[in-house]
Amino acid sequence: MKKSLSLLLLLVMLSAFDTHKELKWEAIGDSITYSNSHPEASQHRISIGYMDDVIKALPYIKYNNHGYPGWTAKSMAENMEKIGIEKAEIYSIFLGTNDWWVGLPIGTLSDYQDNTGNQTAYGCYRIIINKIRSLNPDAKIILMTPLQRTEYVDLNNPKVFIQGQNKAKEGVFLSQYADAIKTIAKAECFELADLYYKSGINLKNAVNFRRLRNPQTHEYKNYTYPHYIGIPYDPATDEYPYPVEAMNMTYDGLHPSDKGHAAIAKMLVKIMKRF
What we know:
Layout: H1 2-16, E1 23-29, H2 31-34, H3 50-57, E2 61-67, H4 73-79, E3 90-94, H5 97-102, H6 109-113, H7 121-135, E4 140-144, E5 152-153, E6 161-162, H8 174-188, E7 191-193, H9 195-198, E8 210-213, E9 220-223, H10 258-272
């Protein structure tokens, strides 16, 4: 009995000193990924991004930030040889929201399978993934669907306004880009962080409200979703519609707050802790 207890104690002590092998993570994305290392871009409305949240939970993972504001899958595909992507054990690809806004054709799975080039989202993902595989064919690849988004007004340039996903852009909905990314993940047996459908970030909680002038009284009023849709906003004369107290999962209708980044990280940690 004593021998068994001693052996058990020894195993517990050894496990306490057991350390996970360090893993390198190349995080590929747009402004949401970029913001992790650049809180000044949000006028410090955020303090931490999803990558830092992940490594707080999994400190043996070290990341490189390859996030570029405004980039689409096409932008990334065209620049994969120039941005210093390195060999790593983990790669994440978090794109799609800008593709929807600029109208990059989605294409079909055959564009991905046949490597048809950078004229469709499917084709662009093939170029990106080909580069990753050339660096490490055994790497873990995580595809991330775009976040749901409501009416966006740029905090640093309020003249920049983009409609929410409730309306189609050139006949296409943001959800269709999310579905394309899911299709690639399924075809390739990649890991999937399905942020669009499963992160808990949605049109109702993206922001608490938009502060706009009542069209009848011209007095400011806090409108919740969907009541603010269609109410005029003039950046030349009106206050920024998302004051700090309007922040919820995002701080501007699109870019995640600390709370939003934590929701993204939670999904990634669930995946990465298995590696």
